[in-house]
Amino acid sequence: MLKKTIVFTGIFWWLLMMAVIIVNAQTKLGTVVIHFSHTANQQPLQFNDSVYANDFGERYTISKLKYYVGAFKLDEKNLSLGFDKYVLVDANQTENKIIAQLPEGNYHSIQFKLGVDSTDNCSGAQTGALDPLNSMFWTWNSGYIFLKLEGNSSASTAPDGRIEHHIGGYKDSMNVASTIRLADNIAIEAGKAKDIYISFNLDRYWNAASKIKIKETPVCMSPGFLAKTIAANFNAIFSIGSKTITY
Amino acid sequence: MYISAKDEHHQPSPLKFDIPKGWPKPSKNIFAKNKLTEEGFQLGRKLFYDGNLSADGEVSCASCHQQFAAFANYDHDLSHGVNNALSIRNAPALINVAWMDLLHWDGAINHLEVQPLAPLTNPIEMGESLENVLKKLKKDTAYIRMFTAAFGDAEINSQRMLKAMAQFVSSLVSSNSKYDKVMRGEAQFTDYEQRGYETFKRNCNGCHKEPLFTDNRMRNNGQHLNKKLDIGFQAISLRSEDSLKFKVPTLRNVQLTFPYMHDGHIYSLFQVIDHYSKNIDTTQTRLDPILKKKINISNKERIELVYFLYTLTDSSFVRNNRFAADHITTIKNPHHPQLVN
């Protein structure tokens, strides 16, 4: 009886190892490099100095634009970001790129989440992208700020003409984590790197499903109705850009 | 500073978190991702008593949470922070916090580990940036040694600091009052206390539920809106039905934690009872259903009830050296209230 079990276990392990070897031989991996870039008025976003205008004719400058992205997928294939689950994109950084490996093939869409999952909002002290040191955590009302946009505008009614949008919220009716899905033909070839350029268009931040006028909404600092109204535009902000955007 | 190879490979000594007999398990296991150890606890204790964590070097956690007051702020309706700024709420006692799902009077904080970020960075409490706090810790050889002992290497980061603080604060368990001794069959209530206990069970236990003396829920106990227009849980949940709801506080050590309520506007337990029997704002639509029926408490019952509440004082908790500062503390007002039992 015991001998039989040993023989069977032996065969089982042999089959399993063969299966692993076959799968490994067949899935050739390619690399995808996802770049985030930011534009306003069709120009690469410049901090502090450049003055832009939204569709309502309100002029503004930007001093900060940061947001969390995660849960990347090409079609149904999850991309592993390695150790961290989220990346904090900082538009004031010269480069925001995410590198991942995945099986070769022709893919038709890329998907990612803007924001932080509700469980990661309630799991205590974190490190990496979610370290509260990144100033993307509300200390007085626990939860992550998913997107932080700050700047100035003559249209703003807040002190010193400030614009302060801290957008977040993970609880049921206040949840603003948004899934962004962009269609494109993405061919991943084994042993090669494919660049994907995702563009954040600030013009659409103000004007898409919701009309966000700086005069009416210079400040949003907590989860709730206003944050939801602004987040309704998140889907329209992103597009797959062309490689020609240069800095 | 020299860290010996032996120190680097030293394993921190695990501590067991004891759940007192007959108590429920904490609903959230805060130790699952934060292993309770002696070294982590000691580091948390040092951080808790360290005024250097604040902007002006004067205000520590213990300035507002004093052990002799069961870690509430003795005789302060509102607490003073850096530069003598006043906070808008009363500092609650820190007792059996490991059992709480939500923290702060309005339930705004969803995890004990992130709670210290609020006082540390609040300009009217400790007024410091997280970045600066970590900078100060990294310069301090005692901290380098203690972080190494607690976490295996000398890295000092926000997560480790916050986890150590959570280890200390969650260890503040009070379960040895006269009430507990009576429940364990080691002591007996006096007749007064026994009758007070009956009155308590009839009128208060619905919210201040034994054995924690709180059900840890957000409820409206019929107070008027204060001058600071503090609407409580509604500001967090954004639901009108949560107007003027506050977290039900534990009544353990309540004799020592005056003044009472979220804004500390009630100074004595007798007045608290008068609130429930006479002053409840019954016009409030969101008043807790339990309090819609009038509470009748005679003058005699009122005194008995207070005697019972005194049995919740745990002198071994407020005198436990393990919870005290190592040496110097920043407490400027060391009057001890009278302890019974």
Describe this entry's structure for a reader.
The complex is a heterodimer of chains A (247) and B (341). Chain A has 247 residues and is α+β, with helices and mostly antiparallel strands. Chain A has one domain (2-245). Helix content of chain A is 18%, strand content 39%. Chain A is built from 5 helices and 14 strands. Chain A has helices at residues 2-26, 118-121, 202-206, 225-231, 234-237; strands at 29-40, 43-44, 52-53, 59-74, 77-78, 86-90, 97-103, 105-114, 145-153, 162-168, 178-188, 193-201, 219-220, 238-240. In chain A, the strands form 2 sheets. In chain A, strands 3, 4, 5, 6, 8, 9, 10, 11 and 13 form a 9-stranded mixed β-sheet that branches. The relative contact order of chain A is 0.19. With 341 residues, chain B is mainly alpha-helical. Chain B folds into 2 domains: 38-174 and 318-323, Cytochrome Bc1 Complex, Chain D, domain 2 (Orthogonal Bundle); 178-315, Cytochrome Bc1 Complex, Chain D, domain 2 (Orthogonal Bundle), CATH 1.10.760. Helix content of chain B is 32%, strand content 1%. Chain B contains 13 helices and 2 strands; from the N terminus they run αααααααααβαβααα. In chain B, helix 2 packs antiparallel against helix 6, helix 2 (38-48) packs across helix 7 (158-170) and helix 9 crosses helix 12. The longest helix of chain B has 13 residues, at 158-170. The radius of gyration of chain B is 21 Å and the shape is globular. The termini of chain B are far apart.
